[in-house]
Amino acid sequence: MSQGLSVRAARAERARRACYRSLKSYAYLIWPIVNPDRKLEWSWHMDALCLHLEAWLRGDVPRLMINLPPGHSKSFLVSIAAPTFAWLTKPSLRFICASYGMELATDLNEARRLVLDSDVYREYLNPGWEPQAGRWLKTYFVNNKRGYMRASSTKTGILGGHADKMIIDDPLRVEDIYGPPLKGHVSWFTDTASTRFGDLKSASVCIVMQRIHVEDLSGYLLELEPERWCHLCLPAEFDPERRCSTDLGWTDPRKVKGELLCPDRFPDEVLAPLKAKFGSNGGKGWYSQYQQDPAKGSGRMFNTAWWQEYDVLPDKIDAWVVSIDASFGEKKDAKREDDFNATMVGARCGNRLYLVDCRHARAEFNEFKAFLFGELVDGGERHARDGFADKWIQVPTWLVEQAANGAATVSELKRMMPRSCSIHSINPTDSKQARAAVTAPLVESGHILVPKGAAWVKDFIEEAGKFPNTTHNDRVDALTQMRAHFGALLGISAFRPEVSKPPTEAAAMHRRWGGIGQAR
């Protein structure tokens, strides 16, 4: 009898020690505490998560980013298991754990506290530390080794002391991708979270989230400093062109395109209705949340297959217009942000809009003036009339969005352009998405066309195809502004006004130029 007890005791001790060494073993042990009515269905992707989380806790990878679909146990392993596992051997670690809302952050902190208060943790694992009396609360608790775990929200500041490690779990809600929280959660990370470390040299961050927008926190950091992040990216369906390999030498083991991440829990019959639901839903769609590729898919407002081309402009043009979306940054050696300018020329013939020319460039104000009006020499005299505005100087209508730096552009155009040009300052009342939603059907129905072979068309269609989940959408804004100017004159198949006699200024200009601006 005593021998049998000693064998069982030895096995129990080996299992206990395994929980100190292996996050996977520990996760198996605490799963029933957090999920008492659910069976743990382990999958290879959870092995990958444990491998990378252990490396992060050791300090081998100070910055770990994990992107994977919802429902794949990311919060359990990253936000609950990993920090409580760390306190088994290093209870002095200080954690700040943040999510998009304080309610979620508090729920996760309570789950961590539930594990730490359990008999399994306190008696069986026996970590050798104790909760500090009076400081064992829902959102903030401290042990007698001076370690703590604090819940926080990406919408607020972080109160209290500094952290050794920070876990950011779902920093942005899907519902917030088109509102101020999109930029706000990035600003929270750059301006607030980055200051909350006791030692910036050893600052250690783990971000785990489903991708929901190209400008979400993952997208921002991967564009800004990809070399600083160990990036574990696990799409629901395997894409060989985006096969993930990390700094730890780990590679996604899947071989066949479309192979599922977790077929036992998410087989084809479960994923199929999700595809149907999300497949055409933009930034909240299948490609972003499940494939971790928010810039891809047919879920954008402008399908790249919709665009129709024209060889030459019609003989009769009813109206010409130039549309400008201007935003200037300061001229610095550092990378400029949000300072792209788009200038687009369009010609309306009946119910169709023909895009004729488009320029898109990053420029500060003086550079943009030189682009419009040509270079100036000492004394302000024209060196050559070679600017974009000079090329299209006879276009009677110029539209400039009032936002950003539109006022400066309007003022300069009024000063430099002939009095025959009508310069309009546009102050849109609808959102970018709302304006694009009205424009997209006109593209789909062939009422907005692009010139065949023009060098600028490919990049423009690519930008439109990613809208609204793209960093820069200046050309789309210029297009929607032009569409709004013409309003109901576009897309009504029964409407085809004749050019008045004598010919309008635009039609005469078109004949005079002999089709200038057409693809050659």
Notes on the structure:
With 520 residues, the chain is of the alpha/beta class. 37% of the residues lie in helices and 17% in strands. The strands form 2 sheets. Strands 3-4-5-2-6-7-1-8 form an 8-stranded mixed beta sheet, covered by helices on one side. β13, α13 and β14 form a beta-alpha-beta unit. α14 packs across α16. The longest helix is centred in the N-terminal third of the chain and has 20 residues. The protein is elongated. The C terminus is likely disordered.
Kindly report how far apart the N and C termini lie.
Answer: 95 Å
Radius of gyration: 29 Å
What's the CATH class label of the largest domain?
Answer: Alpha Beta
Q: What is the third-level CATH name, the topology of the largest domain?
A: Rossmann fold
Output the number of helix runs: 17
Structural class category: alpha/beta
* Average predicted local confidence, pLDDT: 84
CATH architectural group of the largest domain: 3-Layer(aba) Sandwich
Strand order of the largest sheet: 3-4-5-2-6-7-1-8
Major sheet: 8 strands, mixed
Query: What is the CATH superfamily classification of the largest domain?
Result: P-loop containing nucleotide triphosphate hydrolases
Helix content: 25-40%
Based on CA inertia axes, which overall geometry fits? elongated
Which percent range describes the beta-strand content? Answer: 15-25%
Using DSSP, what is the number of strands?
15
Highlighted features:
alpha/beta, 17 helices, Nucleotidyltransferase, domain 5, Rossmann fold, eight-stranded mixed sheet, 17% strand, 2 domains
